[in-house]
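Customer ticket, subject: "Can you confirm the structure for HTH tetR-type domain-containing protein?"

Message body: Hello, I'm evaluating your service for our small team and ran a test protein. I'd like someone to confirm that this is what the system normally returns, since I don't have a reference to compare against.
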Amino acid sequence: MATTGRTGRRPGNSGSREAILAAARGLFAARGYDGASIRAIAAQAGVDPGLVMHFFGTKEGVFVAAMELPYLPSETIPGVIAGGPPDQAGERAARFFVQTWDAASARSPLLAMIRSAATSEQAARLLRGFLERELVASLAGAIGGRDAPLRASLAGSQMVGLAMARYVVGLEPLASASPDEVVARLAPALQVLLFPEDGAGGA
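Agent reply: Thanks for trying us out. I re-ran your input and got the following:
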């Protein structure tokens, strides 16, 4: 009796789900949200497009699942800010941010979020919600003061802008500067926003 050959597609199991997420992270990071189709993600993962839809429902569902970070900023930022003297909070925040981006496990989903937000309003909405929830709200709660949300969003814009220039665009000499060099230059700007010397942001 003749037998049919294997198609090379992965069976629908947990390994397939992880392969889809890995493929999605790579494609979202390289092409942005609009450039990474369900068909392309499936091909990269070695599965049928229908299996992608089975696991995640929509491309937005794939994007949200693929953007899951190894840890949530909202769970770590308060400890970073409170982890030493207030007048060194800018340095701690800058170092935490640069170390996070330099870690491959976190950089891929973060790159994917920023690249995708630049080309898709849908992805921009998801990134905006993530930043408001995980970065600005947690940072504002950690620094306190009546204008803490504004100062936190300004500090967040400094960090997102740095990420775009250093890791996405590759702007030199910033892109090739050492982490210590970047932290040394970024820390004073963050310090002024987190804990202004004039006390304007204080309680």
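A couple of notes from the result: The chain has two domains: 14-66, 73-194. Residues 121-143 form the longest helix (23 residues). Feel free to reply with more questions.
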